[in-house]
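Protein chain data
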Amino acid sequence: MKLIDLTQNDWDMLKSIENIVDGIAAMYGQHTEVVLHSLDAKHPSVVKIANGHITGREVGAPITNLALLKLKAGQDISDAYLTKCANGKTLRSITTVIRNSKNQPIGLLCINTDMDAPLQSVLRTMMPEHLFNHELTSSPEVFARNIDEALHSTIDSINHEVRSNPTVSTSQKSREIVNQLHELGIFELKDSAQVAATRLGISVHSIYRYLREIKANQAESEKSLA
């Protein structure tokens, strides 16, 4: 597959992917290298790299012959494959082709995991740092299968969080729950007020009253800033 001279739009597209490199590296930790290669005909090279200590590479390093072979193989997403880098580490890798609006390949996103790293270290780097200093708690993120499940789980999560928060007075807990649900946009969903009332054990009229107060306070704040 012939390399091309990248246009400014192509470079802008690659630039926009740099956050993805950092995001993947943050997700999988220090034992996974994430590399963004440009396929510019003049100088195909690394334009962004996270955890480069794994292979010892930096921005500007030339593209590998194996990466080019994966490009020529015709798969935009390669099968996972094993390689050994210069320092002897065994890597499990995958390569994804990045194409522009003309369907031309302009870059490669490569993920390389160090298979020789101690398993305990790998697991530790994948865990959120705060979990090592605090007791494990339930995550506020809900991987729901449908909108009803998402609604119920979100209400229950906020309810538990506020009810167990000693800094919120008992008389203000229901109001604070409604306020947090409002900030999440829950009450934009159909029948959400009725569902929330049932799950929180308060009247739907109370919820509507809290919402009116919240909106009135917001309007007053916006007015004072105008």
